[in-house]
Design brief:
The structure holds two protein chains of two kinds. Chain A is mostly helical. Chain A is built from four helices and no strands.
Chain lengths: 108, 231
């Protein structure tokens, strides 16, 4: 993947993330009114296709966005060239797997 | 005051220079060479901010020494002068500008004509949006101050830098130029506009008050719009 496409992917995922973070924060503020329990969270998310889709998209966007950002940091701060792309791919895959596992855990 | 002496592994040498009214940093360096140490090497030509050859690091910041008054920068009467950063040192205050200008060429900074001298003059409306974009960046005199101020250049030696990308942007907006696709490909990617983090150090330090940051953002937008051509 060349740098121009990575740059476009990072800008597009940033737009998605901005919207997701807003919804996420609003949900937190709404959810903590009168205390927060695991049962309450699970009651909202279990079996909800909407929350599964929302947090699924959130995780995918975060993995792509974070991976590309780390690639740039690796190039500039660790003087990595070709290997920076692989490092980013590993980190993005890790974020994706861990994130989707977490989503599955609260939905299923 | 302290002045850098020697090459990359040199060191600072101290001098005492008398203060004068309206004295510039270039006056101070010239005083050292004429009266204290004739072996001091430095570069200048016009002395009035037109040629762009006297840029040095003055108290940690890249500046034109000819247009920098000692009063404005010498806190406590102290000055520390070294060659421009992000470039190899030739000797004393002289930086090797080759890489800086080679990058202008690598960014396709050359005008590529689409007509010959036998054709009519091109008519370019000065008020057109494209020409106004080109005019906003056209006054660059290639002093290298922005290049020395840029952290991305420091971290990624392949990065073309603010001046070369600004030059490419003026040509991308020149209606008469015929190498736009090739230029866009040359300025895209990790060595080009996509590595800019919009930290604006170039814009902050440019003695001509240009905004290379704006030009680089324009190139990013252009590579998006032109799609595959920008690869």
């Amino acid at each position: 993947m060349n740098a121009r496409r990575l740059w476009i992917a990072q800008r597009l995922t940033a737009m998605v993330l901005a919207a997701c973070v807003f919804v996420h924060l609003a949900t937190i503020i709404y959810a903590v009114r009168g205390g927060l329990t695991a049962a309450e969270v699970l009651a909202r998310t279990r079996g909800s296709i909407a929350w599964a889709a929302f947090y699924g998209v959130f995780v995918i966007a975060a993995a792509i966005h974070g991976g590309i950002g780390l690639r740039a940091i690796a190039i500039e701060w660790l003087a990595m060239r070709r290997s920076a792309g692989w490092l980013a791919l590993v980190v993005a895959t890790l974020l994706l797997v861990l994130g989707l596992r977490a989503v599955a855990a609260v939905i299923a | 005051m302290k002045v850098w002496r020697g090459g990359a592994s040199g060191s600072f040498q101290s001098f005492e220079v008398p203060r004068q009214p309206s004295q510039t940093v270039l006056d101070v360096v010239t005083h050292i060479q004429r009266h204290l140490d004739p072996t001091l090497s430095y570069r200048f030509a016009c002395r009035v901010g037109m040629c762009g050859s006297c840029a040095m690091t003055v108290n940690g910041k890249p500046r034109w020494t000819c247009r920098t008054h000692v009063d404005k920068v010498a806190a406590g009467g102290r000055l520390e002068i070294s060659p421009l950063a992000n470039l190899p040192v030739v000797k004393d205050l002289v930086a090797d500008m080759r890489e800086f200008f080679d990058k202008w060429a690598r960014a396709r900074g050359q005008f590529t004509p689409t007509t010959t001298r036998a054709d009519e003059f091109a008519i370019v409306d000065p008020a057109s949006a494209k020409r106004r974009e080109a005019d906003a960046g056209i006054e660059c005199i290639g002093c290298g101050v922005c290049y020395a101020a840029c952290d991305v250049v420091k971290w990624n030696p392949d990065y073309l830098g603010p001046a070369a990308l600004n030059r490419a942007w003026t040509l991308m907006n020149d209606a008469r130029d015929g190498a736009k696709t090739a230029r866009l490909a040359a300025v895209a990617g990790d060595a080009g506009c996509h590595s800019c983090h919009t930290m604006m150090s170039c814009t902050e330090h440019c003695p001509k008050h240009l905004s290379p940051t704006r030009s680089i953002s324009g190139l990013k937008r252009m590579t998006w719009r032109l799609g595959e051509a920008g690869e």
